[in-house]
Amino acid sequence: xxxxxxxxxxxxxxxxxxxxxxxxxxxxxxxxxxxxxxxxxxxxxxxxxxxxxxxxxxxxxxxxxxxxxxxxxxxxxxxxxxxxxxxxxxxxxxxxxxxxxxxxxxxxxxxxxxxxxxxxxxxxxxxxxxxxxxxxxxxxxxxxxxxxxxxxxxxxxxxxxxxxxxxxxxxxxxxxxxxxxxxxxxxxxxxxxxxxxxxxxxxxxxxxxxxxxxxxxxxxxxxxxxxxxxxxxxxxxxxxxxxxxxxxxxxxxxxxxxxxxxxxxxxxxxxxxxxxxxxxxxxxxxxxxxxxxxxxxxxxxxxxxxxxxxxxxxxxxxxxxxxxxxxxxxxxxxxxxxxxxxxxxxxxxxxxxxxxxxxxxxxxxxxxxxxxxxxxxxxxxxxxxxxxxxxxxxxxxxxxxxxxx
Length: 405
Hints:
Layout lengths: L14 H16 L6 E2 L11 H13 L16 H12 L11 E4 L2 H7 L10 E5 L3 H9 L6 E2 L2 E2 L3 E4 L17 E5 L11 H14 L2 E5 L21 H4 E6 L1 H4 L7 E4 L5 E3 L5 E3 H12 L5 H8 L4 H27 L3 E4 L5 E5 L4 H12 L1 E2 L1 E2 L10 E5 L4 H12 L2
Helix pairs in contact: 2-10, 4-5, 11-13
C-alpha cells in the first residue's frame, strides 16, 4: 500500500486564488460584454528589454554551434553571472558577498520553499501575518505545524503586522529558531529601515536564530536610506540567507531566473550544539536536486547588468512605480488609507469593511479585480492588495471606474 504524506491533508485548498478565479469567471459569464481590468495578480505585463532579448538570442545561437555548445552547466550557476551578481548587487552597494556564495536558480518561490529542507523538523518558526503563502505551506508540507485552527496553523508563531507597527513585526514573545522577513513586503508594500533591520539581525545573533530574507522587490526601492539587502547590515552574514528574483526586476516571470545568497559564515547547529555550514548544506542540496538554469537564460540575465540593460530595466521598474503612485494617490484621494506604492509595486488599501465584500463591489460595479487581504492571513482582513503590474492605460481606467463609486 502506497502511503501519502499526510501533512498535505492539513493544507487549506488554494482558496484565495481559486475563489477569485471563480468569482471573476462567473461575473464574466453573466456579463460577457464587460471589460474586466485585473489588478490583483503580481505578474509583469511589459516585454523583456531589447538588451536582454539580444543576449538571449546570442545564447541560443551559441547552443547551435559546436564550438560554443553547452551541455550540463554548473548547478550553482555560471561564473560569469555569479560574479556579476556579487559585484553589482552587493559589493558596489557596500555589502560583502563573494561570487561562490551566490546560487543561481529558477525562482525565489522555489528557493524560499526548498530551503526549509536543510532544517530540523522540530524547529520553531516565526511567520509574519499577513504573509506570502509559500512560507507557511512548505512548512506545513514538511510536518512542522499542527492543524489549521481558526485560520492559523498550530505550532507556528505568527508575528502580526498592522498599521500600528508600520507592518514591521515586533519580536516574538517566545523563542524561535527560524524567522521569515520580506521587504519591500508582499502583500503590504511596506518597507523596513536599516535601524529596524539591524534590530532583527541583533535579535537573531543573540538567540542563534536564522533570518530568511525575501528581497524579491528590492529593485523598487528608490529611497537611498532604505536597505536593499540584509547584508548591508553589520552581522547579517552570520544569521541571514537572502533570496532575490529577476521576475519583477527584469520581467522574468516567464523566463525564470533568480538567486539565493548564503554567506560562508552562516551556521546551523546539530542536536549536540555543534556548528555546521549552511552554505555547504545548501550546496549539497542544490547539486543533488537541481540541474541548473539553462545557459541562454543565464546569458540573458547577465545582460541585466550591462549599461544598456540597466537603463532599460530601470525604465520598466520606474513605469510600474509610476503606476503605483497613481493608484496610491487616487485611492488616498477617495478616502482610503494606503500603505506601499512608494518603493514597492503593491498598494495595501484599508477598505474599512470585509475584504471579500470590497472585492465583490469592485468587480461587479467597477469591473476591477483586486486581491482580498484575508487570503494573506488574519491580519489581512479589512484590506485589499492592488498590483501596479499593468499598463498605464489600464491603471488610469481602473482608477476612473473606482472614482465613480
